[in-house]
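Quick review question:
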């Protein structure tokens, strides 16, 4: 499974992507707002990747590794996934620091929303965001998400933003 934007390819995460994803998941700045925190070892990332692969197998959708079209370098990660089986489908996105400020987060999020609403025919997508993650809040709002409520996930406060299918254009 692959999605494409103007500047990136979003490829379904596979076990062989573990090393590339470790560079993202072991970066303290990129994972600072993760409930799970950063990965200290490649084995932790391997377990994370196995869960992502299992999610794909069980649900036929999931997370993607994001590659620059021209260089094929890993520039990020993102996807749609259940946080709790049968619960809301959550959108996530991470852009490597070297690519911040270039609009890639918006580009990736738009591709994921289009995939979720037009291909998967989802009725609703949520974004659960750490209240201190101002950049992610701004990106969600730019994409058209609207604040719904404050929730607690694994004992940590999150802001829940939602978008319904008819609101996506």
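Suggested answer, residue by residue:
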């Amino acid at each position: 499974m692959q999605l494409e934007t103007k500047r990136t390819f979003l490829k379904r995460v596979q076990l062989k992507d573990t090393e590339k994803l470790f560079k993202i998941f072991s970066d303290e700045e990129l994972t600072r707002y993760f409930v799970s925190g950063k990965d200290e070892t490649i084995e932790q990332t391997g377990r994370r990747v196995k869960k992502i692969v299992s999610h794909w197998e069980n649900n036929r959708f999931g997370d993607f590794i994001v590659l620059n079209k021209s260089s094929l370098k890993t520039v990020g990660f993102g996807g749609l996934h259940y946080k709790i089986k049968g619960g809301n489908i959550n959108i996530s996105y991470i852009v490597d620091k070297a690519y911040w400020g270039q609009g890639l987060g918006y580009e990736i999020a738009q591709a994921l929303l289009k995939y979720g609403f037009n291909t998967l025919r989802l009725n609703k997508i949520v974004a659960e965001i750490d209240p201190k993650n101002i950049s992610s809040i701004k990106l969600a709002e730019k994409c058209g998400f609207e604040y719904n409520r404050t929730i607690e996930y694994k004992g940590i406060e999150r802001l829940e933003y939602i978008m319904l299918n008819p609101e996506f254009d």
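Why it works: The helical segments are 18-25, 42-59, 104-119, 134-143. DSSP finds four helices and eight strands in the chain.
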